[in-house]
Amino acid sequence: MTNTTLEQLAGFAVRAQKATAEGGQAFARLLKLAEGSDTGQARRVAAFVASTYNGRRYPFDLFELRAVDAQIGDDMLLCLDALRWARADLYRLVPDGEMRVRAVIQDWGLRAWLRLRLQGQGRFCRLRGSPQSSTCFILAWDGEHQG
């Protein structure tokens, strides 16, 4: 490896460490807000927190960033930067993080999206509901519409 490559790797390590630390602090603030408030912003924060925990089951619409105060949006962006560097799951950076995130999901009544593979050519549909429920709603379909 050249000196330039080693310098780049060292720079990436510093950036990743900084992003993880700042993201962990931001996540702690967001988690506290989701746990202790019942405002519309707190519901959006709860949805974001759930998405950082499991983005496939709890997708987050990034346009929601426009509907929160600047400081909350800044904290969300810090979390996204930490996730980008993938040094640690954010919930692992706060005390009792997994338990607290699961409680937020339950307390806010957030529903997981189910992604089901349909027989055929790798097509999927996304459903909103629960595996225990007999009622699900198709929210998105990536297959062709068959009229």
SSE diagram, text form:
Elements: H1 3-36, H2 40-53, H3 70-85, H4 97-107, E1 113-117, E2 124-128, E3 137-141
Antiparallel strand pairs: 1-2, 2-3
Helix pairs in contact: 1-2, 1-3, 2-4
Describe this structure in words.
The chain folds into 2 domains: 3-110, no CATH class; 111-147, no CATH class. 51% of the residues lie in helices and 10% in strands. The protein has helices spanning 3-36, 40-53, 70-85, 97-107, and strands spanning 113-117, 124-128, 137-141. It has a 3-stranded antiparallel beta sheet with strand order 1-2-3, with no helix packed on it. The longest helix is centred in the first third of the chain and has 34 residues, at 3-36. Residues 131-136 and 140-147 have low confidence and may be disordered.
Which whole number gives the mean pLDDT? 84
Major sheet attributes: 3 strands, antiparallel
- Beta-strand proportion: 5-15%
How many H/I helices? 4
